[in-house]
Amino acid sequence: MSGYIPTVQQIDELHHKLAPSEEAYELVHTHCVIVATIAQQIARRQNALFTRRCTLPKDAPEWGTAAEDQGARGDSEGAPAATPHNTATSSPSHPNYLVPPTAGVTGGHVPPRLLDEHLVLIGGLLHDIGTYKVFKHDGTDGEPLKFSGKKYILHGLKGYKWLLKQGVDESIAQFCRNHTGVGLTREDVLRQDLPLPPDDYVPMNLEQEVVMYADKFHSKSVPPKFLTVDAYTARAQRFGAENEQRWLELVAKYGVPDIPTLAEKYQMRLI
């Protein structure tokens, strides 16, 4: 480790330090808070799946099936069902087994290890800090906020370099560099003639991948909005079948967050 891991308070200070205006801060920081929230929900779901796999008898059914997720939302009469998602249950063959709650996300596959939920939080809160550097109108010129279409693809790399200059550890700065799209490879950069140094800009670990995935459910458009799985699938299709397939694999791997509830909480539109 060559740098420091910022606290939540220090992250807010970093946002204020780089934000050119209060309007820009509100847009970008709120987006980062939303993405961090979604990412933490996904990480908790992953950890619950991992914990259950490690404590269940070998012949126990897989957790996270469509049937169980449907049951978790209640039966046809509207009564909540007693399922692993909202209760602590035990099995006759394993009476000490407890199921942790995983509100907010359904589905997903069992991960190979436990995820660091605090790292996911920190990464989510900082992943888009580079977008302050790619505004065309940043709130200081009297014009509505607007990003530069040509420069926007650089926001991850710009955020990564800026955080390193601030002394933030490489492991945290990488959340900026490696979250664009569903993972930009060197081949993607060359094939699409993107204005980036030819290299791989893909997650280096599960925590970075979770933040990258969570980021796809919210847009900093003006006004900002939430996206469903289907909405982002349509976006991914524009970049080819391989890009769409990567996205669908992430959906299967990490499950589906409860985006409508978040959209209602933040009073933002949902597409």
Question: Would you mind describing this structure in some detail?
Answer:
GO terms for molecular function: hydrolase activity. Residues 60-95 are annotated as: Disordered. This protein has 271 residues and is mainly α. It has one domain (8-270). 47% of the residues lie in helices and 6% in strands. The chain has helices at 8-18, 22-55, 66-72, 117-126, 155-165, 170-177, 186-191, 206-215, 229-237, 241-254, 259-266; strands at 105-106, 135-137, 146-147, 218-219, 225-226, 256-257, 269-270. It has a 3-stranded mixed β-sheet. Strands 1-6 form a two-stranded antiparallel sheet. Strand 2 (135-137) and strand 3 form a beta hairpin.
Question: Concise description?
Answer:
With 271 residues, this protein is mainly alpha-helical.
Please outline the helices and strands.
Elements: H1 8-18, H2 22-55, H3 66-72, E1 105-106, H4 117-126, E2 135-137, E3 146-147, H5 155-165, H6 170-177, H7 186-191, H8 206-215, E4 218-219, E5 225-226, H9 229-237, H10 241-254, E6 256-257, H11 259-266, E7 269-270
Parallel strand pairs: 5-7
Antiparallel strand pairs: 1-6, 2-3, 4-5
Helix pairs in contact: 2-4, 2-8, 4-6, 4-8, 5-6, 9-10
